[in-house]
């Protein structure tokens, strides 16, 4: 389960996130909806357990069902956040089976499980220097 804890005063603030592209707005909106749903469901699960516990009538089947539903939403939220991170960090490519973006060094699609070994990958973004560096060709 994902717990959101407040930051301590002695911790450094998180680095600013890259600006959101127009293409990412739908993914950001989906992530925000899932995060809101996750938060409400988490509070609901805790409240249900509390109410059952104070009445000394805990029904594990109800709690298990709610926890499984919460876990499903958490998995969707994690996938949306991962896709957003990949989109913001210039994905290595897109899966030929489902079109989902993937990061550099990944061998299987996280969305559909398809093999990515035969997919042509865009070169990893390199640091830009003020001097020109010699280019070397790499054989596949």
Can you walk me through this structure?
It is a single chain. The chain is an all-alpha fold. The chain has two domains: 68 residues; 30 residues. Helices cover 42% and strands 3% of the residues. The chain is built from two helices and two strands, in the order ααββ. Strands 1-2 form a two-stranded antiparallel ribbon. α1 runs antiparallel to α2. The longest helix is centred in the first third of the chain and has 30 residues. The protein is elongated and about 60 Å long. The two termini are 42 Å apart.
Features:
140 residues; mainly alpha; 2 domains; two-stranded antiparallel sheet; 3% strand
In short:
The chain is mainly α and 140 residues long.
Write the layout of secondary structure elements.
Layout: H1 25-54, H2 60-88, E1 93-94, E2 101-102
Antiparallel strand pairs: 1-2
Helix pairs in contact: 1-2
How many structural domains does the protein architecture include? 2
Describe the global form. Answer: elongated
Number of strands: 2
Stretches where pLDDT is under 50 for at least 5 consecutive residues are: 124-136
